[in-house]
Design goal:
- This protein has about 240 residues and is of the alpha/beta class.
- Helices cover about 65% and strands about 15% of the residues.
- The chain has a 5-stranded parallel beta sheet, sandwiched between helices. A two-stranded antiparallel sheet has the order 4-5.
- The protein is rod-shaped and about 90 Å long.
Length: about 240
């Protein structure tokens, strides 16, 4: 029986996830890859036994997951982790540190640096691997969302500051002048629809002035926060 054309198209567009295993012990690399396969992870693996061997691989391939063993002879897994996280082609890669059970200091340092999760070599198994990979991808998504939120907030603050610098003084002058004229005319009108119309216009001008003041307060607050952060950075 021939395969339907649409299935052929799906098979051609399906892309396997890529993974790099960095470990100076061939047996440990083989064991980790075998457990990944047993855990149902369909990964296209690359292997490296040193940071030097890993470097050109990071230049050539965009990885979804990078497993980093802490003990690498001359270099350490921490050195490799920092290199991976700083590589422009690996911005979306999930980094998982593999270390010994007694190295809690390594785990803490790695997580603070930006590692997405860790595996304990002595406890490595199918369930531990699945849990670690799932947690790593979850953390990666959360960090990316936070980064995007910070970028959106920064864009909004920049827009408000431009408004505050270029438009607020002129808009305040125009609205204040218009408000004075409306109140002057309204004082001569004793009632009826015309009086109501002047009240509505007065409320709109007042609301506009209030909005401009709020924009100024936001910009002033942001400016103080930036100055405080700069001061704290200089004190550090």
């Amino acid at each position: 029986m021939s395969t339907p054309p649409q299935l052929h198209a799906e098979q051609k567009t399906t892309k396997r996830m890529t993974a790099l295993v960095l470990d100076d012990e061939e047996a440990d690399r083989y064991r980790l890859m075998k457990i990944c396969t047993k855990a149902g992870l369909d990964l296209a693996f690359d292997e490296a036994e040193s940071v030097a061997e890993m470097e050109p691989m990071l230049d050539d391939t965009t990885y979804d997951i990078v497993f980093i063993d802490y003990h690498l002879g001359i270099a350490t897994g921490q050195d490799a982790l920092e290199y991976v996280l700083a590589h422009p082609r690996q911005m979306d890669a999930v980094a998982i540190m593999v270390t010994s059970v007694d190295r809690h200091d390594v785990i803490i340092q790695a997580m603070r640096t930006g590692c997405h999760d860790y595996l304990i070599k002595e406890e490595l198994g199918i369930e531990a691997l699945r849990k670690s990979v799932a947690s790593a991808f979850e953390r990666n998504l959360m960090r990316r969302a936070q980064t995007e939120d910070h970028a959106r907030i920064a864009d909004l603050e920049a827009t408000l500051e431009r408004i505050d610098d270029s438009l607020r003084p002129e808009m305040r002058r125009i609205l204040s002048s218009l408000l004075r004229r409306i109140r002057s005319v309204a004082a001569q009108v004793h009632g009826g629809p015309l009086r109501l119309k002047h009240v509505e216009m007065e409320e709109l001008c007042t609301a506009g002035l209030t909005t401009l003041d709020e924009v100024g307060q936001i910009c002033d607050t942001n400016g103080r926060r930036v100055r405080l952060a700069s001061k704290n950075s200089g004190d550090a």
